[in-house]
Amino acid sequence: MIKDILTMNGYGFYVWLSFAITFFSCIFYYVKTYKELKKYEKEFAKELMELSAINRQKYLDNSKVANQIFLSKSKTI
Amino acid sequence: MLSFFSPSNIFVYLNKVIEFLNSIIFIVLVVALTFALVISPPDYVQGNVVRIMYVHVPAAWISLAIFSIMTFSYIINYIFRIKNLLIINYSIAPIGLLFTALAIITGSVWGKPTWGTWWAWDARLTSMIVLMFFYIALILSLKYLNDERIKLKVTTTLSIIGFINVPIIRYSVDYLNTLHQPTSLKITGTSTIHTSFLLPLFLMLLVFLIYSALIFLMKYKTEIIKMKKKRLKNYD
Questions:
Q1: CA of A38: how far to CAs of A34, B131, B143, B194, B216, in Å?
Q2: Do A65 and B47 lie within an 8 Å CB cutoff?
Q3: Binding-face residues of B in 82-121 toward A, CB within 8 A
Q4: In this predicted complex, what is the ipTM?
Q5: pLDDT tens-digit readout, B62-119
Q6: Contact indicator for B91, B216 with CB cutoff of 8 Å
Q7: What residue ranges do the domains of chain A occupy?
């Protein structure tokens, strides 16, 4: 049973190669996208923390996005 | 009503949707792979090599669908100037390129045991390569053109010209000389594909769609943060 799945009656190389290329490209691109998102979230939260308290509050009052990132990231900085 | 769809309002819900998609993708993937690699029967002509269809066909469908969505968004944006559509296009273009490349590569791997060659410059294969070049040109324009007006003009023009290629890809197997088999699955008319192949095919399509949605949402979120980061400088 397992041997049949692996060899695919002689077509195993082509079938597994196609699935492996698809799987690994998707994983690679997922990790790259995720890391980029986390990098920008961190940078944004850091820059927000560097603002003076008054300016930061002013910005947070005007931006839902900033609020969300600030809440999730402020603990980790 | 329209303000509900502004990036800031959408942003609030992004994390919840990303978390939900992350929680289901693995389960759907395991079920889809079980059907595609174990349960699904071999084809009576092609044997087990037909299983490549389960990654090749959904990848090709998504690449064409994304290019069509992008062209439609560009046209709408050109008329109504909705900035959110540009962010959406910027976020989905790389997914389209990824799936176009995957459709071409897996098609080439499928071609070797079926046609006896990895590559042939026939209508379907060549038109898919052309689509990939349009994706690359669009992504490079979005990334490296600094003037927003020029960027919008160039990318809109590229997407409209590139869109002419979409029906060529779709109908090349029916009307042009090609090694590629004719369309098996038809929305109108009788499909020539057995239902035992359809279930794994649609399950793999579902996996690819969930994956595309995940990447899109993460990239969209990144773009909004980049935008907000620029505005932050006004508060310095």
A1: 6, 31, 20, 44, 15
A2: no
A3: 94, 98, 101-102, 105-106, 109-110, 112-113
A4: 0.90
A5: 999 999 999 999 999 888 888 888 899 999 999 999 999 999 999 999 999 999 999 9
A6: yes
A7: 2-73
